[in-house]
Structure formats: structure tokens, C-alpha cells
Design goal:
Layout (H helix, E strand, L loop, with lengths): L7 E6 L4 H17 L3 E7 L1 H12 L8 E5 L21 H10 L4 H15 L4 E6 L4 H9 L2 E6 L3 H13 L13 E3 L8 E3 L5 H4 L6 H12 L6 E3 L7 H11 L3 E3 L6 H5 L23 H9 L6 E5 L8 H14 L3 E5 L20 H4 L4 E5 L4 H6 L3 E6 L3 H8 L5 E3 L6 H12 L2 E3 L10 H12 L6 H19 L6 H12 L4
Parallel strand pairs: 1-2, 1-4, 2-3, 4-5, 5-8, 8-9, 10-11, 10-13, 11-12, 13-14, 14-15
Antiparallel strand pairs: 6-7
Helix pairs in contact: 4-5, 6-9, 6-16, 12-17, 17-18
The structure holds uridine-5'-diphosphate.
Length: 501
């Protein structure tokens, strides 16, 4: 009997964050959809592997070709709280600490690759490293196996993040001060960036500090890869891709959006319970989904504001009070995912003093306050959602646009300021309400912005934003169409080329 041909093996090395692990998992599923005859191993720390295992178990018929490989990691060895293996619930400085600690996975990863290569051969193995785990490329090179990078962010955000972190164009080197407005190398001269587009820790980088050096070395490692897979759609990020391609000078495959397929196959904002599940993270929901849908069902189409700042970021205590007052002032229905404000234990219990006295009682009819974690995917799929007040994390952006929901931006970290800028200037689907932890906004201003974006009057700003978000949703759906869509074809192209020189 003839032996079955050996399967090619793709090894994925995601960064340790919800917003990176989940897109990698979706990428693995998509790859298997194109080619069943692959083995895919996702490598990470034990806790993240456990979470991925439950995310896979929650989906229909777990594929036997996806393997999970835990590498030893003890967060307390790196000055982090016990069981801190991803960014969830960590403060900004702890997130930096985790980034540093991620480098210690290199030795066990190298050991693992050595075992795989000796049993399967170099030509059968390909490594895809997160751009934040650039050392994976070096490991691949040292064994002579094929290697690629993957960014969970968009093209514009990635290009701006890398260019600003590497060139520090916002600093006037003569006097050490910052420019209010500056040009970012790689972007057109007409595209000016403001210092307020840059997240706080990066704004303070001067090229010599520990984290400038860490970022610089991490991003320069990626220059050694044979190509970049980007979690975006060719048609919606035209400028960002042009800049990224010019800057990186390696092939860029747009394979996004890496969000659950059900969000891409149902009609825009069409019904109640979507069958899409948010339980991908192993997180405890702060509300029963049925209660949430019952409440959403009682509202008219496109009337509810959804508010969430993602899995890592939170606003300050004073901003939380400002936002609560603004929501009350707006009188618009809302679902607000409340997490402990900045500076408090991110895993701690809810404290009533974080919200204005009597707020939860007063808004009982107007809104739902969800503590901790909400079923975001299902909420955004609901027809009654009219806008999303978001930190502009890239997954949230795609989840929102895939449902034709415009955004109100409040960037809080990493590349979110650049995402927000792109969503406003390039796509016209967002209005920025506030930025970072230092914005103070009056309740009148918050109420005004919410009312503008939820306004459905034909020809008004809210209506135009919704139309643009709907068009973006259609482009996103078209991109994943089997045999036709740009993202579908790009992934096909990558898979036919990734094991060749
Ligand atoms: N998310 C969720 N419920 C919440 C908050 C976040 O399901 O209450 C999910 C959201 O759907 C998205 C991810 O967490 O998939 C957040 O990723 P994003 O890139 O938007 O932001 P990050 O958390 O990485 O800053």
C-alpha cells in the first residue's frame, strides 16, 4: 500500500494577548479551509493554550489538524502577578513587562522547532511569527525553515506604529521637545500626524530608553521575514497598504478580517441571537446573553450605543464619571461594558463610587451596565445597535464595520490613535470623542457627539457615517467570498507560495 504523503506543517507563534491569539486561531481555521492537508501548531504559554483549547471546543467539529503546544512560562518569574500570561487585566507598565518577558519563550520554542525539524525535515516546516515575536523569524532562519510575519493590526496602524517607533519623528532632537504636528516617514507629505495621535508611552520614547530599544529591535527582526500577513482587507486600507508595502519592501498578503465567519455570512445587523459566540476567551460574561438580547430586542433598529474599551484598556476614574454623566445627558439607549478604571486592580470587584451617585438606578430604563465582559460579537450583530464607542482596537473595528456600525473613537493605547485617524480621514466612519487618559470632556459634548452619530436623518452626519460603514461592511464581506474575494485569494496565494523559495 502506498504511504500517504507527509503533511506540510505551519507553526504559529502569536503574541500573548487576546487581540492576537484569536486572529491567529481564525487564520489557522481559514488556512485549513483552503487546504485540509496541513498540520498547524499554535505555540504559546500554558494558560493561553488552555484558552485556545476551550475556544476550539466551543466551535462545531474541532479540526484534528490544529495542534496546541504549551511552552513553559511562569509570570511571577518576571515580576508579574500569578497566572498573568496575556495582557488581560494588566496595567500599562505590566503590559510592557509582559512584552519583555515574552522573549524568554525563545529557548523552549527553539527546542520545539529543533524536534519538529528533525522528525519532519526543514522543507516541510514554515513558521509564522507575530510581529511582536520577531525572534521567531531568527529561530526559523537558524534552522533554515521558511518564515513569515503576521500583524493582528491593520496596515495604516502597523505602518504608523513601526515608522513612528523607529524614526521618532515627533521629537525635536535639538531641544528634546515634541512637535505638535509632524510628517511620518513613508506617509504622504499631506498626511500630517499630531502628537495627540501617539499613545503616551511611545510619545515619551527618545530612542535611547529601554522600550524604544525593545520596540526597535522587535520591529527590525521582522525585516528578515519573507513576507507579511496582515489582518486587513485590500479594498478598505488603500493608503495604509501603499505605505506599508513601500516601507517594508516585502510581499504583504491581506488576509483579514480574522473574525468569526458567522459575522461575515449573516446579513448586516439582521436579527437577534446570531449564533456567533463571544466565549472565545474563556472569560466570565458579566451578563446573561439572553437578558442582553431581550433588552436589545425591545429597541428600534440602529438606536442603541454600545460602549467597550476592549480587553486591556480602561479609562480613568474621572473620565468614567464624565462618560456616565454624558450618557445620561444624551438620553440615548446604551450598553456599557464597565471595567475598573485606570490604576485599580483590573480583576477587582465593581465599586459603586466609580459611577455617579445613583447612576445605575437612574439609567435602569435607558441602558444596561455590564460589569467586566460582554458578549460583544452578539451585541454588534444585533439590529438595534446604531454606534460603537470604542478604543479602536483593530478587532473591535472590524467587528463593528462588518455589521455596518459606525464608531465613536476613544483611543487608549498602542496603535489605536492611528486606527482612529484612518477611520476618520480615510473611511469617514468614525468621530473621535476623546483620547488617552488625559482627555476631559463635558457631559454636553459627550451627549452632542452621541446624538450626532445616532442621528438617522437622511443626509446628516450620522446617516452618512452609517452608509459608509455599511459600504465598508459590504467590502469586507466581498473580500472573504470563496474563490472571488481579495482576502480569500490572497490566502490561497500565500499557501501556494509559502513553502517555496
Ligand atoms: N471583547 C468581548 N467582550 C468585551 C470586550 C472585548 O468579547 O466585553 C472582545 C472583542 O469582541 C474583541 C476583543 O475582545 O474581539 C478585543 O480586541 P480589540 O482588538 O478590539 O482590542 P484589545 O483588547 O486587543 O485592545
Amino acid at each position: 500500500m502506498e504511504e500517504a504523503p507527509q503533511r506540510k506543517h505551519i507553526i504559529m507563534l502569536p503574541y500573548m494577548a487576546q487581540g492576537h491569539l484569536i486572529p491567529f486561531l481564525e487564520l489557522a481555521y481559514n488556512m485549513l479551509h483552503h487546504n485540509h492537508n496541513l498540520n498547524i501548531t499554535i505555540v504559546n504559554t500554558p494558560l493561553n493554550i488552555t484558552n485556545l483549547r476551550s475556544a476550539i471546543a466551543n466551535r462545531p467539529s474541532p479540526p484534528s489538524q490544529i495542534h496546541l503546544k504549551p511552552l513553559p512560562f511562569n509570570s511571577t518569574d518576571h515580576g508579574l502577578p500569578p497566572n498573568s500570561e496575556n495582557t488581560n487585566g494588566l496595567s500599562a507598565s505590566q503590559i510592557m513587562q509582559l512584552l519583555k518577558a515574552s522573549v524568554t519563550l525563545e529557548a523552549p520554542f527553539r527546542q520545539f522547532i529543533s524536534e519538529v525539524v528533525s522528525s519532519e525535515g526543514t522543507s516541510m516546516v514554515c513558521i509564522i511569527s507575530d510581529v511582536l515575536m520577531g525572534w521567531g523569524i531568527f529561530v526559523a532562519k537558524s534552522f533554515g525553515v521558511f518564515s513569515y510575519s503576521f500583524t493582528a493590526s491593520g496596515a495604516y496602524g502597523s505602518a504608523a506604529f513601526v515608522s513612528i517607533s523607529q524614526n521618532l519623528p515627533h521629537r525635536n532632537m535639538a531641544d528634546g521637545g515634541t512637535y505638535d504636528e509632524f510628517h511620518v516617514p513613508g506617509f504622504p507629505e499631506t498626511c500630517r500626524f499630531k502628537i495627540t495621535d501617539v499613545a503616551q508611552p511611545i510619545r515619551d520614547f527618545d530612542g535611547k530608553d529601554e522600550f524604544s530599544r525593545l520596540f526597535k529591535s522587535k520591529s527590525s527582526m521582522n525585516h528578515e521575514s519573507k513576507g507579511l500577513l496582515c489582518n486587513t482587507v485590500e479594498e478598505i486600507e488603500v493608503l495604509g497598504l501603499e505605505v506599508l508595502r513601500n516601507y517594508r519592501k516585502i510581499p504583504v498578503w491581506c488576509v483579514g478580517p480574522l473574525i468569526p465567519p458567522k459575522m461575515l455570512t449573516k446579513n448586516l445587523g439582521s436579527d437577534t441571537s446570531s449564533g456567533v459566540t463571544s466565549q472565545r476567551s474563556g472569560k466570565q460574561l458579566g451578563i446573561q446573553p439572553e437578558k442582553c438580547f431581550e433588552w436589545l430586542d425591545s429597541h428600534a433598529s440602529r438606536t442603541v450605543l454600545y460602549i467597550s474599551f476592549g480587553s486591556e484598556n480602561t479609562i480613568s476614574e474621572t473620565q468614567m464619571i464624565d462618560l456616565a454623566k454624558g450618557l445620561e445627558e444624551s438620553k440615548k439607549p446604551f450598553i456599557w461594558v464597565v471595567r475598573p478604571p485606570f490604576g485599580f486592580d483590573p480583576k477587582g470587584d465593581f465599586r459603586p463610587e466609580w459611577l455617579p451617585f445613583g447612576f445605575v438606578d437612574r439609567v435602569k430604563k435607558q441602558g444596561l451596565v455590564v460589569y467586566g465582559w460582554a458578549p460583544q460579537l452578539e451585541i454588534l450583530c444585533h439590529r438595534s445597535i446604531g454606534a460603537f464607542l470604542s478604543h479602536c482596537g483593530w478587532n473591535s473595528v472590524f467587528e463593528s464595520l462588518s455589521q455596518g456600525v459606525p464608531l465613536i473613537g476613544w483611543p487608549l493605547g498602542s496603535e489605536q490613535g492611528y486606527n482612529a485617524k484612518m477611520l476618520v480621514e480615510e473611511m469617514g466612519v468614525c468621530v473621535v470623542l476623546a483620547r488617552w487618559l488625559d482627555s476631559r470632556i463635558t457631559k454636553e459634548e459627550i451627549s452632542r457627539v452621541i446624538n450626532v452619530v445616532l442621528d438617522k436623518s437622511v443626509g446628516r452626519k450620522g446617516d452618512l457615517m452609517r452608509k459608509k460603514a455599511t459600504e465598508a461592511g459590504e467590502l469586507i464581506r466581498a473580500a472573504v467570498e470563496i474563490n472571488k474575494g481579495s482576502s480569500y485569494n490572497a490566502l490561497n496565494d500565500f499557501l501556494t507560495r509559502c513553502f517555496s523559495n
